[in-house]
Q: What sequence folds into this?
């Protein structure tokens, strides 16, 4: 069944006034997401929050929708405010010993540098490596590998299906940050089997900042203690008239990591976005995103850019990066913004990131603006 992409695009009013090619920085929240937040506050006004326990039942429905999106189980899903919280939970819950090692890739997001490097005070070795030397770097002593599905700076798409079994055979924990792809590219936790997957929803999941989710494998949940313990940490929390006192008895599911109240308005917005994606279909979204990313590559090539994807494998992501000889990427991004064309500059690259709400007119406007700035023939 074909998708009415023009109808989908109409859900994003920002696109009427901007050529928005910057989802790797912020995703646009659909109108139905904004309406879901408004409806939540209208409900609070009508019912004076007397039905607040029902909000948790509805949050569990969202947990199930998220699980469908990543082919997991609802009990494996916990809500988090951001990916940093999930990563800190994992790193803080490991009994680190001197000469233990954490490995990540070059051009990773700073989350994966800062916390591991901070552990040097405890004798933990932190290794940053390019992909060509990854397997050698993740040798004896490695306890954790932390990776993004797609590099925010280069668009490198980590071949997790190749890496994950190799790590699993060696007992090395795999943490994956899916913030830069989940919602655009499929992620299958049943196939990849990470120990933890964390996603902040404000990029490709088209949600407000402050809401996301983490998948925590059943095996890891047996070992990883909660870092936040509150009234919802006990398995009897759904009976608020008779809450237990004393040490909590943790539930088996990942919700034990949530601890307290949820950001319900943001969860409502997340629900609206995930429902939209499931209605369109992850496969249809992946095809559309691939088409648009291919168009973005063509525009950058015709404008004279040198593309990373033309020089090495694994750059087949909706984050497209190009470098222009004689033109500074930061200057280009500023000048494009002045023309209401939004892209980003990262590590000397001009970064163009297309989502399913984009269309060919966006790419044509980018091409025209680059031609004006650079003087190259960049027509589609």
A:
């Amino acid at each position: 069944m074909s998708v009415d992409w023009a109808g989908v695009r109409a859900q994003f009013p920002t696109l009427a006034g901007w050529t928005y090619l910057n989802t790797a920085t912020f995703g646009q929240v659909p109108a139905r997401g904004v309406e879901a937040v408004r409806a939540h506050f209208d409900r609070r006004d009508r019912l004076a929050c007397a039905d607040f326990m029902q909000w948790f039942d509805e949050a569990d429905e969202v947990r199930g929708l998220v699980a469908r999106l990543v082919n997991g189980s609802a009990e494996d899903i916990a809500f988090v405010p951001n990916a940093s919280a999930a990563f800190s939970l994992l790193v803080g819950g490991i009994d680190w010993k001197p000469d233990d090692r954490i490995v990540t890739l070059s051009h990773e997001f700073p989350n994966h540098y800062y916390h591991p490097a901070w552990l040097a005070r405890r004798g933990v070795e932190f290794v940053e490596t390019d992909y060509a030397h990854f397997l050698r770097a993740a040798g004896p002593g490695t306890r954790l590998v932390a990776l993004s599905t797609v590099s925010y700076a280069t668009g490198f798409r980590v071949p997790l299906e190749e890496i994950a079994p190799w790590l699993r055979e060696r007992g090395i924990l795999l943490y994956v940050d899916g913030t830069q792809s989940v919602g655009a590219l499929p992620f299958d936790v049943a196939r990849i089997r990470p120990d933890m997957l964390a996603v902040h929803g404000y990029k490709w999941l088209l949600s407000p900042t402050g809401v996301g989710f983490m998948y925590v494998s059943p095996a890891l949940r047996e070992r990883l203690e909660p870092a936040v313990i509150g009234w919802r940490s006990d398995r009897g929390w759904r009976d608020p008239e008779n809450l237990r006192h004393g040490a909590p008895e943790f539930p088996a599911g990942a919700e034990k990591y949530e601890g307290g109240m949820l950001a319900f308005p943001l969860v409502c917005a997340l629900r609206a976005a995930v429902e939209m994606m499931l209605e369109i279909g992850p496969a249809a979204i992946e095809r559309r995103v691939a088409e648009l990313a291919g168009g973005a590559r063509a525009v950058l090539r015709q404008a004279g850019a040198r593309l990373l994807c033309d020089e090495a494998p694994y750059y087949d992501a909706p984050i497209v990066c190009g470098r222009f000889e004689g033109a500074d990427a930061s200057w280009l991004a500023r000048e494009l913004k002045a023309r209401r064309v939004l892209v980003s500059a990262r590590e000397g690259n001009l970064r163009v990131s297309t989502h399913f709400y984009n269309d060919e007119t966006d790419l044509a406007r980018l091409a025209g603006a680059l031609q004006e700035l650079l003087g190259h023939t960049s027509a589609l």
